[in-house]
Amino acid sequence: xxxxxxxxxxxxxxxFFYRKIKSLxxxxxxxxxxxxxxxxxxxxxxxxxxxxxxxxxxxPSINGFDLAKVLCEKYSDIIIIFVSSYEDFVYSSFxxxxxxxxxxxxxxxxxxxxxxxxxxxxVLNDNNILFDTTDGQVSLKPKDILFFExxxxxxxxxxxxxxxxxxxxxxxxxxxxxxxxxxxxxHSAYIVNFEHIESINNKGFLIMKNNQxxxxxxxxKNEFKNAYMQFIRKRVTK
Length: 238
What we know:
alpha/beta, Rossmann fold, CATH 2.40.50.1020, five-stranded antiparallel β-sheet, 7 helices
């Protein structure tokens, strides 16, 4: 069951939004009663799970950005979709790695696709992929993989929990397997998860969320920039 929540201090809008999401959901989804504050979300998460959170930004006490920062640190699996009347917030929101940014004035055009893509991401990320490592088979979720590194006839898998695995095989086979999960081959030796890129510096290096620095090859630099910009643009529903 996919648990969907709304956090908005405007009770009238929250109820309207709740009904709209309910009308788009199937039996695989549960839509929780709307939270009117970030504190309510934090308290709820102590005992329960939220998979998708539609989050207002301009709220008293704890605003949407402050709540998103807490969630990114403690509940990083939650898909955050910012919902705001203020379109100027869209660029500021990228710091908190939202899945999408919805404009309250364009919900009829934007909500359905944002919700369907969020659910699609959950389904994809919940797929377990079997890898034949040198120590036996390992089952990993795409969301738990930071990047792959190729070395001669082997490749290494680096994960968010700090573990690494050695597998026999080519980076080409890895690339074919992982492309649909938002991975990109930035170098003949590296395939990275877009979701776990921390920053990009002007010297042609990526900094991953484990602080690992990876080189982008010159011949792939433009293709990478275009692919990453498309990935970022998808966070703002058209």
